[in-house]
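A.,

Following up on our hallway conversation. Structure tokens first:
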């Protein structure tokens, strides 16, 4: 549907229908604990991205840092879908200071046929998923890392590759972040509420996308101490994994939206390069470990997301978490049509 309509030119469907489809395509975006904390309002000639406070992690993410990064990723996904339909767009971030839940408004520009890379990128949004299994020994090349850095920097976000001598510190930081969140009853309850869902759940993490605890150089977020993920870890040991920190000079909602756009671009670029990815953001959520990450960045700026990347140890495919239905997150403004 998305692939062919642009070929028919700009006048085959009203712009509002195209915007509606772009909002639907953004459902594929990654989000913290698969909360999908967004709402789309489809106007006749513009598209509003709003934060949905009902799917906010009030204990784990009281400032809305990860909520906003997730919404930035959804924004990037919507813009990809619009480009493939032939509509590059102008974006206003945080357009109304009196309406903090309004995170962005997308204004499509004049019709312009999509380029081949727009189609590729759109296709990648359909197949990308988080892979929490340990990666294999095959190395991530410097060229691949340079490609990921370019993808982030297109959104003004920098990428720090955690140096070999920093990996033990990162491991200690990951263990500390996990301990801190699980020790807090409210945070622990929130993790339990959003993780360990039955396969097929529309929000949260189903048990079939998380792996049981397995030895690796840097431990992954455990989600809870007493429930194990059901996805088989496979033969990998993360020996070829690299760890990236997306960072920037600002720390605030505008910066977090840009970080989300950059995260989306990096995840999709990685998928196109044949690399697996899994974000590790408990290290950023916890204030004390966030501070240590700043040290790993040599105090140059603020960490937004930590990302584990690598080459899958076996060609097993990546199972994905499910998503809400279109009508649960998209409102069409009929007054404007
Ligand atoms: C801002 C953000 C933070 C995330 N943090 C983590 C994390 O700490 N650990 C993890 O395993 N996955 C993390 N993820 C991945 C999400 O859980 C994942 O995107 C979501 O469950 C949807 O699944 P999918 O990426 O497979 O489509 C994060 C994603 C985003 C966008």
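Then the amino acids I'd put at each of the 337 positions:
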């Amino acid at each position: 549907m998305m692939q062919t309509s642009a070929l028919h030119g700009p006048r085959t469907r009203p712009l509002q229908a195209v915007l509606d489809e772009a909002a639907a395509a953004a459902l594929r975006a990654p989000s913290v604990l698969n909360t999908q904390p967004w709402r789309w309002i489809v106007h006749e000639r513009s598209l509003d991205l709003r934060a949905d406070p009902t799917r906010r992690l009030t204990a784990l993410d009281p400032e809305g840092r990860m909520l906003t990064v997730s919404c930035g990723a959804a924004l990037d996904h919507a813009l990809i879908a619009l480009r493939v339909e032939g509509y590059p767009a102008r974006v206003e971030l945080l357009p109304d200071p009196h309406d903090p839940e309004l995170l962005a408004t997308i204004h499509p520009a004049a019709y312009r046929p999509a380029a081949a890379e727009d189609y590729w990128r759109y296709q990648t949004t359909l197949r990308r998923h988080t892979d929490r299994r340990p990666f294999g020994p095959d190395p991530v090349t410097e060229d691949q890392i340079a490609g990921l850095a370019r993808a982030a920097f297109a959104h003004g976000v920098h990428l720090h590759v955690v140096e070999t001598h920093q990996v033990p510190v990162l491991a200690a930081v990951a263990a500390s972040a996990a301990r801190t969140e699980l020790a807090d009853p409210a945070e622990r309850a929130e993790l339990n509420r959003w993780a360990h869902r039955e396969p097929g759940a529309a929000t949260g993490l189903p048990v079939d996308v998380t792996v049981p605890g397995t030895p690796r150089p840097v431990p992954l977020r455990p989600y809870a101490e007493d429930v194990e993920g059901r996805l088989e870890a496979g033969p990998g040991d993360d020996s070829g994994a690299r760890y990236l920190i997306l960072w920037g000079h600002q720390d605030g909602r505008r910066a977090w939206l840009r970080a989300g756009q950059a995260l989306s671009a990096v995840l999709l670029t990685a998928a196109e390069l044949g690399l697996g990815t899994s974000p590790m953001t408990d290290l950023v959520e916890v204030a004390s470990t966030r501070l240590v990450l700043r040290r790993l960045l040599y105090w140059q700026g603020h960490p937004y997301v930590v990302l584990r990347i690598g080459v899958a140890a076996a060609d097993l495919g990546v199972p994905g978490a499910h998503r809400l239905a279109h009508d649960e997150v998209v409102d069409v403004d009929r007054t404007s049509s």
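The CA atoms of residues 164 and 242 lie 9 Å apart. Curious whether your intuition agrees with the design.

B.
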